Amino acid sequence: MKRAGLAAVLLTCLLLCAAAADRGEDEMDGPYTVNTKISDVMSDPVFGSWGRLIFPADEGYWSGKTLGDLRLTWYSNIDPDKTVEICNYLHDKAAAGETVFYDIYTDEEKAADPAKEDTGLFFFKGEPGAKFAVCNAGGGFAYVGAMHDSFPHALELSRMGYNAFALIYRPGWDTACEDLARAITFIFDHADDLEVDTDCYSLWGGSAGARMAAYLGTYGPAYFGGDDLPRPGAVIMQYTGHGEYSESDPPTYACVGTNDGIASWRTMQRRLEAMSALGIPTEFHVYEGLSHGFGLGTGTVAEGWINDAVSFWKEQMETD
Fold it and tell me: Any idea which fold 100-319 has?
């Protein structure tokens, strides 16, 4: 009986350790847990004035009191452990004196247009000198669902060595594209300080964020008020019904679920087929049974799609 009891204890410890490993070292070592109040994260002094932008500025589109019960409108598959992991990552970097948030507008510009107060770039740093990506969350151009739709992507890209930014933009497709153009301009202007390679950069996005990435790919940053800069070397899109394209569009990767009631997979497929017919490199994936807003797709049939997308981007780097 004693041996059986000891074996049971050891098994329990092993299971707990495995679960802890699955949640990631950042979560275990950081100050936040699934029970931490969202308001406590937003007001944490380590973040200064921008802590509030870790979560959507428009409180009408999210709910929940703790990190564990955060809910975002139009999004499925929200992973509480990933939410905790991201918050701890940002906390640890900021506490170590690293800059993880950049304003893209000056104080004068924000004074002239107070809506620009709710903008900025979160930086998930990769290897010095590596190429960069800008991740754009969706939210129906009503809010920015970064915690599920751009922060996780940026964090994973940084762990692969890439320099990844997550944009907090003003809702509305025109202002959102203007903010993305400004963000790209900011990164190019500060490329040396940020230690990023600007060649063959990529734009990522889900839902409304995917439309932003596509628009900038089609028209370029200058069209939306940015500098006259190169278009992205690759556009990575998730779940959007965007249909517009041009002969000069960048190579494009897209993925979506068959049960998406907001973005039809057939619409996405037709667009990429038309682009491919023009000689534009494309790659399309559709996942059986998935609904809108699956993010990284952890625990679903789409899990690992980000690796396919990075491989597609790397192919464009080699061609470029």
Answer: Rossmann fold (3.40.50)
